[in-house]
Amino acid sequence: MKNELNPAKLLAAFEVIMAKGEKTEFGKHYRGVEASTDYDGYNVYLKGNGVELHIGFHNTYDLKYDQAHLKDSFLKKIDSLLQDEQAGDHR
């Protein structure tokens, strides 16, 4: 899975969620994706649809899921969130 995902795009999605999301116990939730970070901001977490994504130092990442269709659905949700943001959709 190395180099399958674009960390810059994932971090952009994280920023959108943190800016527009509703506060949760761990971070913010926006349009089906929860975003959080550790205390120093070096580790970023995105989760939803049975998928957990950890983005670490130097843009390394670890994507955990049980079924490929869950991963695909999660990544489509991230893409949709970014496309809507670029199009000016401010739900």
Span between termini: 33 Å
Q: What is the average per-residue confidence, as pLDDT, rounded to a whole number?
A: 91
**Proportion of residues in extended strands:** 25-35%
User: Order of strands in the sheet with the most strands?
Assistant: 1-2-3-4-5-6
Number of β-strand runs: 6
If helices are DSSP runs of H or I spanning 4 or more residues, what is the number of helices?
A: 2
Q: Which descriptor suits the 3D outline?
A: globular
Summarize the helices and strands and which ones pair or pack.
Blueprint: H1 7-20, E1 22-23, E2 28-30, E3 33-37, E4 44-48, E5 51-55, E6 61-65, H2 68-87
Antiparallel strand pairs: 1-2, 2-3, 3-4, 4-5, 5-6
Helix pairs in contact: 1-2
Please characterize this protein's 3D structure:
There is one protein chain. The protein is an alpha+beta fold. The protein contains two helices and six strands; from the N terminus they run H-E-E-E-E-E-E-H. A six-stranded antiparallel beta sheet has the order 1-2-3-4-5-6, with helices on one face. Strand 5 (51-55) and strand 6 (61-65) form a beta hairpin. It is globular. The mean pLDDT is 91.
